[in-house]
Amino acid sequence: MTTRVIQILFLCVITLLSASFSGEVFAQSATSTATTTEQEVVAETKTPSWYTSERITGNIQVGDFVVGPGRAEVFIKPGETVVQEITVTNRISSDRTFKLEVEDITGSKDGSSAVSLMGDDRGPYSIRDYISFPEDEFTLDLGERARIPVIITVPADAEPGGYYGSVLVSTVQNSQSEAGAGAPRSPVIARVGSLVFLRVAGEVTEEGQLIDFSTINQKKVYESGPVEFAILSENTGSVHLNPYGEISVRNMFGEEVGFVELEPWFVLPSSLRSREVTWDREFLLGRYNATARINRGYNDVVDEISYSFWVLPWRIVGGLFVILFVIIFSVRAFFRTFEFKRRDV
Prior knowledge:
alpha+beta; 5-stranded antiparallel sheet; 3 helices
């Protein structure tokens, strides 16, 4: 009986000890989890930021910085606010300071350039009042890429149509040693822009056409390929256009010997834009006819203009003339030297 009681008491002690140890483990685990969660919240609270950043890999010290995208098209209704993101990648040096600005842009009246920055002046379709940033300066380490929010707000009474500008990112020197000993300090090293094409919903005017198509400087005779073409488009509407199309080239026998597909490009309102296209083919000979078929970028309207040119390799043509002259001269000399008489039967 005594032995039985001892066994029962021993089992009770073992059970109580097991429950006690198990409670301590679970308590420690729960405490540990709570501590980790609390540390994550504190870390996020300690490092607030109005933009996000990430590290890049590969060759990061190449002496420049990269801004993207090159162009963004934003469609918006009056009274709305949208956030468009641009990226800035620092490949210059550590602790590089960048500054954000907005400038209006305009097209060219002669087609010589795609866009022109307006500086402090306002463009005919100003976007300056519609774009803002949480802050206009930020610092990046070498190899760091920032994702910058660009806030676009259009008032409720905004006129429908296109508004055009550029978000400019400039970098500032941080020390005199960076510029070199004895060199004058320049506050701005470079500026890179990301174009913003804003289209406010409503009734707009889409109107434009293909003005001209020819070779560059309307050149008529080439010695060899490649051949460079120039396309001149006009936009007379209130929003930008994205024309696209193709160029086909036929030889003197009417056979198609060349084809160039044209990806969409943009033409700003109230402006002309010239685009150069290269037909890269080396050996050419004779007369060719090139035809440009350009879709205006709206209502599937296509304009068509043709242009003819010659390709005459003077070395080859000159050599053929020399050979032909030698053959003719030899034949004439042969007949003058030998007299053929008819034999009577």
